[in-house]
Amino acid sequence: MHELSIVTSVVESVTESLAAYPGARVLEVRLRVGALASVVRESLEFCYGIAAEGTALEGSRLVVNVLPVVMHCEKCGKDVELEGVQSFRCPLCGEPCFDLRQGRELEIDSIEIEDGKEAA
Amino acid sequence: MTTRIVELRRGILKKNDELAAGLRASYAAARVMVLNLVSSPGTGKTAFLEWTLTELRKRGVRVAALVGDLETDNDARRLASSGAPVRQINTHGICHLDAEMIGKHLDGWELGALDYLFIENVGNLVCPSSYDLGEAIRVVLLSVTEGEDKPLKYPTMFNSADAAVITKMDLAVPCGFDRWAALKNINEIRPGIQIFETSVKSGVGLDEWLGYLEEKRKGRG
User: Fold this and answer.
1) B95 and chain A: CB distance < 8 Å anywhere?
2) pTM for this model (two decimals)
3) In B31-133, which residue ranges form alpha helices assigned H by DSSP?
4) Please, which residues 59-118 of chain A have a Cβ atom closer than 8 Å to chain B?
5) Which CATH architecture has domain A1-68+103-120?
6) Where does chain A hold its CATH 3.30.2320.50 domain(s)?
7) pLDDT (tens digit, 9 = 90+) per residue, B176-210?
8) Least CA distance to B95: which residue of chain A?
9) Quick one: which of B183, B60, B52 has its CA closest to B120?
């Protein structure tokens, strides 16, 4: 529901970073989004075109990399990847897991840019 | 023309997270315990909070509330009947509260004069989960009229909560509420979370809730 505000923040944040690369054109923006981040990939992609319009990011691609939930299982003594988000139990031993290690990320990973001029 | 990859590795909600960290520091300095109440629309957050504010004030506890809604100040007026200072935040279409809105609406309030500050979020089980308000405790509420599978449908919100409150327990029987299924579902998504089964009509579960609030504030040292 709040994907437009999320991608608007992405556009603002990338625009700030572009100050270091005058004249650069953005080709691609890559996000890391946890499975528990409460955002929908398709909705982010749809809203991205709207948010990028009229900015240096217009026409660029948004690539959303969804990260599975990883919990630390105390009984097994290791990090385990959950198959979904319907049960926070260790898939190996079945014990409940309390310690979330991955899954809430909402990050800009990297951008691919085309330089405006050859780097000196 | 050359193309290259620039690593940014930056939180998308960094601005909100930084503002929330600032709020958290100011709450800690003022020694005020801040709770963020989240639920669907219609769960009974306002009734539950109205009761909580009234009871805490009777006990001489210093409380205040911020309440978020898309439009109207109806909830602020209801909560103000408790006698506590209350401010309404109208988001005008935005589906969640963020740290900036909280900071703006705290302007002029003496946080050091409060024991608890309650923030009633916009009724929505999705978006508020992404926005840190600097709170110490996130409370998710679920009413018996909503269905026992709400935690499974909205795992992010339930997984990010510190306590769960089931409201309208007086309607559990007429609604055919399956208590065990609800408790099991909450525990599947957030193992070990403290759950309060309450009704502001019958009074059930409310002593435990007040006990929890007191314990959390004392435990903070």
Assistant:
1) yes
2) 0.92
3) 45-58, 74-80, 99-105
4) 85-89, 96-98, 100, 104, 106-115, 118
5) 2-Layer Sandwich (3.30)
6) 1-68+103-120
7) 999 999 999 999 999 999 999 999 999 999 999 99
8) A2
9) B52
CA distance A84 to chain B (A): 10
Q: Give me A88's structure tokens.
A: 């926070």
How close does chain A come to B93, measured CA to CA in Å?
A: 11
Place of tokens 């579960």: B205
What is the ipTM score, two decimals?
0.86
Residue of B8, B125, B159 to mutate, interface with A, max A Cβ within 10 Å: B8
- B76 token code pair: 């602020």
Contact B15 A9 (CB under 8 A): yes
What are the structural domains of chain B?
Answer: 14-219 (3.40.50.300)
Do B81 and B27 contact (CB within 8 A), yes or no?
A: no
CB-based contact (8 Å) between B192 and chain A? yes
Print burial letters for A21-43: b (CB count within 10 Å at least 16), e (below 16): beebbbbebbbbbbbbbbbbeeb
Determine contact: A17 vs chain B, CB below 8 A: yes
Helices (H), A18-110: 41-52
pLDDT tens track for A92-115:
999 999 999 999 999 999 999 998
